[in-house]
Amino acid sequence: MAYKKIAVIVAGSWGTALSRVLADNGHQVKLWTRNPVQADEINNERRNGKFLPGAVLPKGITATTDISDAVKDAEAVLFVAPSSAMREVARQASSYIRKDALIIHATKGFESDTLKRMSTVLAEELARPEDEVVVLSGPSHAEEVVDRHPTTIVVASKEIGCAETAQDLFMNDAYFRVYTNPDLIGVETAGAIKNIIALGAGLSDGLGFGDNAKAALITRGLAEIARLGAAMGANPLTFAGLAGVGDLIVTCTSQHSRNWRAGSMLAQGLPLTDVLERMGMVVEGVRTTKSAHVLAARHNVEMPITDQLYAVLFEGLSPDKAVGALMGRVRTHEIEEIASASRNKWLKG
User: Which CATH superfamily is domain 5-182 in?
Assistant: First the structure.
């Protein structure tokens, strides 16, 4: 494979970790940041101390504060902006990106006001077919990837050739394995909604509950993800893979997870504003809870965990009362939900 020039937008923890993967694979990486101090630190000290303290970055990564300089000659552009900023940064970059550049994103969330997936936002702002946008997702903490710990993820696109090109860019034999998947909707939806369940897992741990509670939360959370995803047009089988149950497990069980940490703080009685201030980084699960609450109503999908977390985050419900509401729900039959998913169009015939 020929080495390529790749732009990465922006220089947060995940963008920086993925830049290391690309640089390790021999590609020339331009990493964009608005912060000139951060750019100088990356270029001169080979560090990004705020987001990945302790990690030393390879020389194949160059930081810039000029978005046109980052993307103008890039053969692929990887967007890792927060969901709230994706449209803005895509719009800034759009006139400088090559028409033949591969567009990839690794952001897990929805646009808050439109409820659109990130691939749709990018397609609109970059005037590209959504079918050619690639999403990278799966069970992956930036802190482990930047230390070259074995990691396996998935790249999804409706155009399989685009997914395979992205697979070639990222995959290596040392520590980063990449699978392809044609289900763009399923991979994006799973990546977004699992952050809600991770908030719940942190809340459960913060309340002092045990493994039984967390196992139930993860399992029932996966059912919620699959229900909404299927209603939005996803293949239910996607949720049994890396982007679904794989990412859900790693995000709900690790203290690397921002969403888990935020949920744990909420359980200790801290107000949401204080939690977000202490985190100092984007907690996508908070915005996504609001988006999923609206999407569930729009698609007539039952999402009780999401509903209770919405009440905790935005309506002042105490975490212990949210748990009580979940435990006291009307009894139902688990197999009915599985049968409902099996009637989805993806599984017919």
Answer: NAD(P)-binding Rossmann-like Domain (3.40.50.720)
